[in-house]
Amino acid sequence: MDLLDRYMSAVKTYLPADQQDDIGKELSANIQSEMDDREAALGRPLSEAEQETILQQHGHPMVVAGRYRPSQSSLVFGRQWIGPTLFPFYLRTLQVVIGISFAIYLSVFGALIIIGQQVTFGGVMNTLLLQVFWLFASVTLIFAAVDHYVLPTMRWDARKPPALQPVMRNVHQVPRLESVVQIVGIFVFLTWAWFVVNNPTPVFGPVTSTYRLGPIWQQMALPVVLILLVSIVQAVVNLFRPDWTRFQLVVRLLTDVAVLGILAYLLQGDQWVVLAHPNGDGAAALDSLNQYVSYGLLIVLVGSVFVLLTDAWKLVRGERRRQPLRTAGAEGL
């Protein structure tokens, strides 16, 4: 493959699947025409270095893909905070993070209401709105910093293209959008969890003065952080090497097992929530609240087993698909 083919392969990984072919053909034709005009002016074929110069002038594949997306939405508050290149990644990350946050808080407040704890609508809304504002600010600041300080300095070396296998054999790639959402989402969760350990208000909202998290959560803090850091490393690797699908599945399989171990340990306890004050209010409902926490942990455990089996099946299926390719390669030799 020549440099242009490799360049287009990289650009396509940043485009929606249904637009890759059309945009790829248009962009490839434009660049090829530019190279042809340059060859005509020089009266000879372009060297690899001269081709590389033209590609470098077009910019990093992610930036180029951003220019060709039909939607050129951006985030503007007086000035542009997040441009069209990163805006689709930003919007998807925001949706995932806020969606998960809503699911967690509605579950917690639903359990408090079921056990008869006095929870006002105003208190619930204040907590939810505070969390939405905090999540929106966190994700926005992260993407704004990347857009203004990281994106302009990103370099592209046309002589070091992504692996050829995904283009030549149509092997599945890890979507870069998935990797970005994973990195930012985990980072936001880590900062949120650190804050919750020191101040349980984001979890209990209007009943913070009554309950707090039990010591068992602090015991699991370090293992959880290590698992999340491993997941961040995996996402960063796949952001730059989306063709390493097996690496993603192997790491996920290992983290799935680790998560099951943590959940199994948590289920051995019975005091996931404790009273904020030993003789304070809420003692009558404490056992019921812990019972609902155990139900929640069991549901998460079942879901984690399903995720583990799904990732294991994907890994086995991927290995089976590689076998014919290896056999064909051996026969060719």
Plain-language structure description:
With 333 residues, the chain is mainly alpha-helical. Helix 1 (3-12) packs antiparallel against helix 2 and helix 5 (87-114) crosses helix 8. It contains 13 helices and four strands. It is elongated, with a radius of gyration of 25 Å. The protein has two domains: 1-70, no CATH class; 71-332, no CATH class. The chain has a two-stranded antiparallel sheet with strand order 1-2. A two-stranded antiparallel sheet has the order 3-4. The two termini are 21 Å apart. The chain has helices at 3-12, 20-42, 48-58, 61-68, 87-114, 121-150, 165-169, 176-198, 201-204, 215-219, 221-240, 245-267, 283-332; strands at 75-77, 79-82, 211-213, 273-275.
Key traits:
single chain; 333 residues; mainly alpha; 2 domains; two-stranded antiparallel sheet; 4 strands; disordered C terminus
Question: Could you give a short description of this structure?
Answer:
The protein has 333 residues and is mainly alpha-helical. Helix content is 72%, strand content 4%. It folds into two domains: 1-70, no CATH class; 71-332, no CATH class.
